[in-house]
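Justification of resources, computational component.

The compute hours requested in this renewal are based largely on the per-chain cost of generating structure records like the one below. Each record pairs the submitted sequence with a full structure-token output. That output is archived, and it is also reused by downstream analysis tasks.
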Amino acid sequence: MMDDTQLDTLVARNPLDGHAGAFAAVSNSVTQIRSLPLARHLNLRLAADEVHLVATELGQALPTRACTFSSSEVASVVWLGPDEWLVIDTSTDPATRGGPGLEERLRRVLAGTRAAIVDQSGQRVSVLVTGDAAGLLAKGTAIDMHPDAFPDGSALQSHLAQTIVVLLARERGAIEILVRSSFARYLADWLVDAASDPAAND
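The structure output for this chain reads:
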């Protein structure tokens, strides 16, 4: 006999949803912090002679220079290694340009190649720091985040407050922090504490 019990639809939840108030409380004219909506993340492995195959679907050529990323209306693509990229779906129309369709289209154009695509959507969440992002993050990393040293389009994997993160230099000095979901609340608490330090506003 078939069980008629229906499972509730699983809904992805951002582990930082509960930090919106704390982020708002410490944000000011100098530095602002907010979590970004959940996005689809795909880890992409490609050989050098296959890189050109995905340009149309991603709306851009893959970045091939170390420690950089590029963006289009479809996705932000982060260079992780000579044959590895992180594809972050940035589509505003999931029904036509992003969502599950992005992975499906990539798999279609890469069929028969040595490429590998792994959905890592639940692995990381993003926090955006604007204003004096470099000054705030300097409290947790020895890396120079000043726009002169870390200009727009720069990307790197490093440690921030003893947590492994991916840092993306966005426009006008903003820095996006990609952190593993299991460490997200810890890092969020650290950011709030760091922003609450009076020295952060000097």
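Residues 163 and 186 are 9 Å apart (CA to CA). The longest strand covers residues 124-131.
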